[in-house]
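Mods, move this if it's the wrong board.
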Amino acid sequence: MKKIIGKKIKESIVQLQKDGVWSEFDVPEIVVERPKDLSHGDWTTNVAFLLAKELKKSPLDVAQELGGALSGEGLENITDITAVQPGYINFTCDRDLHTQELKSIIKVGDEYGKNDTLHGQKVTVEYTQPNPFKPFHIGHLMSNTIGESLSRIIEFSGADVVRANYQGDVGPHVAKALWGLKKLGYDPTDIDKIGEAYAYGHAASEDDEKAKKEIDTINAAVYSESDPELMKIYNTGRIKTLERFEELYDILGTKFDRYYFESETWQKGEEIVRAHMGDIFEESEGAIIFDGEKYGLHKRVFITTQGLPTYEAKELGLTFLKKEKDPSDVYLVTTAVEQDEYFKVVTKALELIDESFVGKLKHISHGMMQLSSGKMSSRKGNVITGESLIMDAQKVAAEKMSERAENDVAQDTINMIAVAGLKFSILKQRAGKNIVYDADTALSFDGDSGPYVQYTYARCQSVIAKAQKNNMQPAFIHACEGSIVVEKILTQFEEVVEYANKEYAPHHIANYLLDLVHAYNSYYADNIIVDVEEQDISEYRLAVTVATAQVIKNGMMLLGIRVPEKM
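Not the wrong board. Structure tokens:
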């Protein structure tokens, strides 16, 4: 209908010009969108504001003239076309269109909302990026949440998606952890001790020049694999931390197709840099740099004075490895917003090295997360990690469910609610914005939270189960007026998915779901959904409920969140 309305507006403008009512001018792009206030109809356009300058008339006069000219084939399902202050044209669809959409949602089911916008394309999405020998911190949790949701939205839009995870298994952080393990005599099979060893080594590297030199020596030895005893500790610690990361991915609902490691990208990156000395890279004070200032950016070191590749050089190697293994139309990377400038420089270098990357490299950044208390460390002074946040969310979810449930709640349900609380609090904000996280609010069964959306889904399932006991099935004979707002919101889901894909913005889906569950819960409060004495009306209300549950399920799936059948 959106396309039909846009086409008819353009045709009407051309006809008004041919009839001499309006002067000749190039017809602008026609934008038809949903009104923010559903009482203003199903569609609206601001085209009169664009035409007003050309016609030297007020936007309202233009809207009234254009609105009066809009009619004919294709608009039979539009019951009202109204020009309103200060110059919008609103379109209202007949009820049958909404009813037909309910039928489509129920028929299509889990596939509802899919589109073929990216049909035939391959997209590599790189996200999470935790480093062995270091804790899984909050930034990794945010990257995982956004990256997984983007992967699902892009997949739902017809693309073949490769989920990639890039992890730093060599570098100064590894050397600090290994130095700490040796100095403290810790067992590298103990995941908690590895974290303590890293913190100890990091502190020592900043305060003790001797320790810093020893750590630098260990760093070089890891790259060269020259110390067998050291490599034994290294390999054990690497395996243990990677295993722990997999346990967290399982809780978060992520499975990766590709794992890349700095141990396999550094050599390739170094080779690329040295192969382009003189044309793209240059020597500066013993290091090799890329002079981004020539392109309005900044200078960055790609190979250090010690001859070791930096993150920048490794990034080159990584990108070329991605191209070799999974040639893609788009390469997305989601990391923290403070890496924006870093990625601008690396992207420019990559585009100069290989012009096939031009326009294909995209960086989606996330902001920082703060706790509502303002504190990001525990009483012991340790930084709160993404892992500890997940564990705390599980604890709060278990406590809240124990207050509501008569019987023991399955751990899987607790995990679902905990993940919903964390992920939804991240995804309802536009990517790049900072987030203030409060566990009680994020895991509330009321308000704008993931568990509230889950609770509404479970409520729908309860209604559906009650209807089945009374031998009722969804039917569309008697539409009920009270559900029109819910129906109007339901018909918007496909567009929201398309927009979220176009903008790489999951928050559009999260906030759409909040609008839907608020509308449905108001409808539920005002109506008896299952009433055996009014079966025809009840069966239509049941259809609205089934469609609502389906769209909630599909929308939450796109956010990487599961929905429990009971809560």
